[in-house]
Design goal:
Distance between the termini: 59 Å
Structural class: mainly alpha
Number of strands: 0
Order of helices and strands: HHHHHHHHH
Helix content: over 70%
Radius of gyration: 23 Å
Largest sheet: none
Shape: flat
Length: 290
């Protein structure tokens, strides 16, 4: 049997409640903090609540005789590494997909239909390849399949980052998107297999559930942290360069200049929603990515 306690196992309600409250508070704080600012009182309070309840979860799990998550699993070095890989790998995958969406939509101003087609290509291969991956991990070590998947995701992210230029078309993204889709399929199909192979058979069920939780946590954190980091960098660069860009644009209408400066204080995403303003000969239009 897959359960860590084949007989007499019961629901760990005292452990589940603080885990849910702690994780929800943490995700809320990370998500809202990118907008409100991580120094905002409500955000700091949410982090404090998350820390307190997650600490309570750890204490409860260490003392109960029927834990929802046996923390001793993480003393197993191989399992702990797989858990970390699950978080970082899924974080990278979703973060890359989010960044691609921002580049295509916010920076390059491509229409929603073409972006939707690319995201369709990002997900459809998984449906087709999952049966193949299931067979593959029975003939090849899941560790190698997992490693290959992450390498493909890394290669596609590097490839896609080179396409963040004004002349890029949506078709330029097809190849790296398909490469990402293949890498994701290899990863998602093998990560649980690797995890359960690192623990005793009686703990396989719990190891699988824990790995899925860590994987999903990485999936949630990807867009949250990438958005926060990306917005912070873009907003700082915008404030440093908006004056020079306006000067080079040749725009003389004071009301228009004032409006643009006002919008720029709302951030890079807001300023990118402005229409492209033609600049003087030889200069890039204002509003177009350099």
């Amino acid at each position: 049997k897959n359960s860590s306690s084949a007989a007499g196992r019961r629901l760990d309600i005292p452990g589940q409640i603080p885990a849910v409250i702690g994780l929800v508070s943490l995700i809320w704080a990370l998500t809202q903090g990118s907008e409100a600012g991580y120094g905002d009182t409500s955000i700091v309070l949410a982090f404090a609540v998350a820390g307190a309840f997650l600490l309570a979860f750890v204490v409860i799990e260490l003392r109960t005789d029927s834990p929802v998550l046996r923390l001793a699993l993480f003393k197993n070095r191989s399992f702990a590494i797989v858990g970390l890989v699950a978080i970082l790998g899924m974080f990278s995958y979703v973060g890359m997909a989010f960044a691609m969406n921002m580049i295509l939509g916010t920076v390059l101003h491509r229409d929603a239909l073409t972006i939707g087609i690319l995201f369709l290509l990002l997900n459809v291969p998984a449906l087709l390849l999952f049966p193949l991956v299931a067979k593959l991990i029975h003939s090849i070590s899941p560790r190698w399949v997992l490693t290959a998947g992450f390498l493909l995701i890394a290669a596609s992210a590097f490839w896609g980052s080179a396409l963040a230029r004004p002349d890029a078309t949506w078709t330029d993204f097809i190849a790296p998107v398909l490469l990402t889709a293949i890498g994701f399929t290899l990863t998602i199909g093998s990560i649980t297999a690797v995890a359960i192979n690192t623990v005793p058979p009686k703990l396989a069920g719990m190891a699988s559930a824990a790995t899925n939780l860590l994987r999903d946590f990485g999936l949630v954190m990807g867009p949250v942290l990438i958005a926060a980091i990306g917005n912070a960098i873009a907003n700082n660069q915008l404030q440093d360069t908006i004056g020079g860009a306006l000067a080079k644009s040749g725009l003389t209408d004071e009301a228009a200049v004032g409006t643009i400066i006002g919008i720029s204080h709302e951030g890079a995403v807001a300023i990118n929603s402005l229409p492209v303003i033609p600049g003087p000969a030889g200069q890039p239009p204002l509003g177009e990515m350099p």
